[in-house]
Design goal:
about 300 residues, alpha/beta, 3 domains, five-stranded mixed β-sheet, about 50% helix
């Protein structure tokens, strides 16, 4: 199904249209009218004719309930997304956890003009709550607008010299990007003010190393008018350096500076290692300092060597 209000650019998968109509009508007075019309279609004899009739009925009610209008309106709020993509496909998400937007770019050999397809995955039940749907779309489409903005400089590749495990880096980066997005939407009045407190709590849990500087660092992201992909990656890799806090030691999940393995078990007080142990470490890693930290496995290894 194609929504003509968006110049045939938005396509809704029939499975989503049917499920969204059922979810939106559940418990409403018009549900009886819809189900009566739907039951009548089962009397049609031809399977193909019956399937076509069901599709037409669901599409008509989808339009009547204004379910596709929220998607079209959200795209109009982000003209950079509408003009920067060639096709928008709206498909059902398996759960609300799987909802989101993805941008697919055709490889040059497959399409010399690098056609872009925007895929929105939405759970049918979300269409029963249009306020939640609008909020979700605003957030997701602002992420896509950033991806299309050359000034943001988005790259899907993890930094090759990252000192964090990829999963931790992506988790941190995703939260930072969400903070940046929500800050702009809140200032525009498109998100409720209480969003800030919720994001601040998530930020404090993800970056405990910032301590007393947590809110100050958070506000630099939430209140920023412009940031780049590189800014977010830099913060994710080293929050204390990015937040102007002194860098000491390592944090759980980072890589040990000696063996380069990610670990959550670091030596609790590397500055208390004996001079003999520290000398052994510097034989292999001349530039190492106690403030760099090390994992417990490496600490035990060098204790044994110094013993």
């Amino acid at each position: 199904m194609t929504d003509t209000a968006q110049a045939a650019a938005v396509e809704f998968e029939p499975r989503l249209v049917e499920a969204a109509v059922l979810a939106a009508l559940r418990g409403r007075p018009a549900e009886a009218e819809f189900r009566t019309a739907r039951e009548a279609l089962y009397l049609l004899e031809g399977a193909e004719e019956r399937e076509t009739a069901f599709g037409a009925l669901h599409a008509a009610w989808f339009t009547r309930l204004g379910l596709g209008a929220a998607v079209v309106a959200a795209l109009r709020e982000h003209p950079a997304v509408s003009t920067g993509t060639d096709r928008c496909l709206v498909q059902p998400a398996r759960s609300r956890h799987d909802e989101g937007a993805e941008l697919f770019v055709a490889q040059p050999e497959a399409s010399p003009d690098r056609r872009r397809t925007l895929v929105l995955s939405l759970h049918p039940q979300t269409f029963a709550d249009l306020d939640r749907l609008r909020m979700l779309l605003r957030r997701e489409l602002l992420h896509v607008a950033d991806m299309l903005d050359p000034a943001f400089g988005y790259s899907p590749q993890d930094p090759t010299a990252a000192t964090l495990p990829p999963a931790l880096l992506r988790s941190r980066y995703g939260l930072l990007w969400n903070v940046f997005v929500d800050g702009r939407l809140t200032r525009r009045g498109e998100l409720p003010p209480e969003v800030r407190a919720r994001r601040l709590r998530e930020f404090a849990v993800a970056f405990p190393m910032l301590g007393a500087r947590t809110e100050e660092a958070f506000e630099r992201l939430f209140g920023a008018a412009t940031l780049t992909h590189a800014d977010l990656v830099r913060f994710a890799l080293d929050p204390r350096a990015a937040g102007d806090a002194p860098r000491t030691g390592v944090e759980p999940g980072e890589r040990c500076p000696l063996c380069q393995c990610p670990t959550y078990a670091f030596e609790p007080a590397p500055e208390r290692l004996s001079l003999a142990v520290q000398a052994r470490i510097r034989e292999r890693s001349p530039h190492w300092a106690a403030t760099d930290g090390l994992c417990q496995q490496c600490a035990d290894l060098y204790r044994a060597r110094a013993g």
